[in-house]
Amino acid sequence: MTLFSQILQYTISGLTGGSIYAVLGICWSVVYLITKVLNFTTGEFVMLGGMLTWGFHGAGLGLLPAAMLAVAATVAIAIVMERTTIRSVRQPSEMVYMMLTIALASILKGVILLKWGSETRKIEPLLGGAPLQLLGATLTPQVIVVLAFLFLVTTGLSWFLNYTLFGKALRASAVNPTGARLMGIDISRFRLFCFGLAGGLGALTGIVTAPITFTGYEIGLLNGLKGLVAAIVGGWTIIGTVVAALALGLLEGFCAGFISASLKDVFSLLVMVIFLVLSTYRWRIRRKTL
């Protein structure tokens, strides 16, 4: 394989990983902006999507019905979680919410571990066919599915938030919750909607990526943290999150290819640490200036 083919292969790999982080970053953003909750179950929604699809498919359902049932179950779990835990907190704070979602993520992971064990699983590709050769690099049809999924999520969600009444009310609630309440907007309904949306998008992400990256009880935490990196660096906006996630995926792809595959996760989390340190330093300088 020539150097150009290697670069192209690492680019494809990076864009695939970045697409996963982008959707997860959007899931983080839609929950955080309306609820101010850092939802650490975001990665576990991805795990549930893949594992439940594998479980339902293994029980005799077709792949498409199994995937639809897995998405519905994950959305239901997210809604029940919001109703029974997040909303019932009497003295809410970001730390309390964060600890609650970390505990819930551990519970979901433990249930899957008890049910299906620690082995990694794989589901059938949604788009079959032989791998494509592109200038010396290999492109599988499922990678095209992942990239198309990111495009549909980004464009669909952007249209929904900018051109529908419900979406505009959701944006208004995120910008000014007090003003939205005074205008008669039910913030609690939007909070429930955002948790359900995050559950559905996370489950779909797990389904479209399981044929490539496999699935298992332990995949949620690291993928979720990388999505959080993308959301933070991207400023909690859809476009910013997508750009940051794709850049993060490319960084991982080239680091894994040219340096070491075992260090790619280190580089991803190092980006978040550096960004947070620089943001804190800039805030301190601005405060001293004022």
What does this structure look like?
This protein is an all-alpha fold. It has one domain: ABC transporter involved in vitamin B12 uptake, BtuC. Helices cover 78% and strands 2% of the residues. It has a two-stranded antiparallel ribbon with strand order 1-2. Helix 2 crosses helix 8, helix 2 packs across helix 9 and helix 10 crosses helix 11. The chain is globular, with a radius of gyration of 20 Å. The mean pLDDT is 83.
Strand content: under 5%
* Tally of domains: 1
Poorly predicted regions: none
Note the overall shape: globular
- Helix amount, in percent? over 70%
Largest beta sheet: strand ordering: 1-2
Average pLDDT reading:
83
CATH architectural arrangement? Orthogonal Bundle
Cα-to-Cα separation, first versus last residue: 56 Å
**Number of DSSP strand runs:** 2
Order of helices and strands: HHHHEEHHHHHHH
